[in-house]
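Discussion board: Methods & Data

I've been asked by a reviewer to show the raw model output for two of the constructs in my manuscript, not just the figures. I'm not sure how much to include, so I'm pasting the format here to get opinions. Each protein appears as its amino acid sequence followed by a line of C-alpha cells. Is this the kind of thing reviewers expect to see in a supplement, or should I convert it first? Here is construct A:
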Amino acid sequence: MARISLDPPRTLLVRLAEWYSRRTYGKVLDPVHALAHHPGVLTADARFERSIARWDKLDPGLKALALMATSAAIGCSWCLDFGYWESRRHGMDHRKLQEVPIWRQSDVYTPLERDVMEYAEAVTATPPTVDDTLVDRLREHLGEAELVELTAMVGVENLRSRINTALGLTSQGFKDTCDIPVPN
C-alpha cells in the first residue's frame, strides 16, 4: 500500500499530467499522483523524463535490461512492472525481461547483456562496486558515449526506483496486460 495518498489536489497541473499519462500509457501512473503533491517536483520530473527520452546512443534493448536490473536490485515492483510492459510494447523478448531478477542463472543473455546487468547492479550498490575490468569490457563493446548513457540511465533508474519504493508504490498491473495467455 502506498505510503502517500494517490489522490492529490485537483489542480490544472494534475489534470494535465493525468491526461498525458492516460493518453500515453492508458492509465494514470501512480508516480504521477504521488509526485503531484509537490507541483515543483512533478514539473521537474516531467521535464527531466522528456529530456531523458531523447537520449539515443545506447541500444534500447540494453537500456531496458539495465533499467530492469537496477529496479530488481532495489526491489521496486512498480518499476519492474512498468519496465516489463514498456519493453514488451517495444518488442523485447518476454523471456529476457522475465528472467532479469535471475539473470545470473539464465541462459537467454549474451555476454554483453550480462555485462550491462552486472554493471547496473554494481552502479546501484551502496557504495558502488564498479571495477575497471567490467568498464573496459563495456567500453570496448559500447564506446564512450554509450557507456556514459548507460551509467546515467542506471542513475536515473536509481532515482525512480528509490522514490517509488520509499513512497510505497507497488505494481500497477501493467505486466498483466502484456502477454497473451497460453491456452490449456
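Construct B, same format:
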Amino acid sequence: MYQREFRRLEKLENDRAFCRHGVRHLLDCAHIMWILNLERTLGLDREVVYATALLHDIGKAQQYETGEPHDVAGERLAREILRELPAVHAFSAEDIDAICTAIRGHRRAREDAGPLERLLYQADKASRACFACPPDVRAACSWSEAKKNLSICV
C-alpha cells in the first residue's frame, strides 16, 4: 500500500513547481527529527521517528484527488499500513497511535502536542528550502512569508 500511494503522489506532483513530497523531503524530515530528538535527549525510538517522517505525507495523493486534507487521509492510511506490517517489523499499538497522532497534527503547532508530533511539525517546516526557491515560484506559493523557511536553521 505504501508503494502504491507513494507512486500516485509522485505522478500527481510530477509537474509541480512548488515543494514536492518525494523521498528527499521525507528523508530530510526524518533526519531533522532524529537530530532534534538526540539534541533534546527526548529518547524517542529511531524506528518510530523514521516511520513517522516517511509516512507523514502519505495522504497527499488523496488530497489532490478528492480534497480530503492530507493529514486526515494520512492518518487513516498510515494506520492501515502500520497494522499490515509483518510481525518482525510491527509497531506496538501505542507506537502506532503516537505515529498517527503526529501525522494528523503535523500541519499545525498544537499546544498540547506530544514530542513526536512537535518534532514532525518542526522538521516538516525546516525541511523546506524556501530560501533556495526561485523568486517567481516563491512569490506564487500559498504559504505566508512567516511560514516559509527562509533560513537553514531550525
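Answer (T.O., handling editor elsewhere):
This is acceptable in a supplement if you add a one-line summary per construct. For B, something like: The chain has one domain: 2-129.
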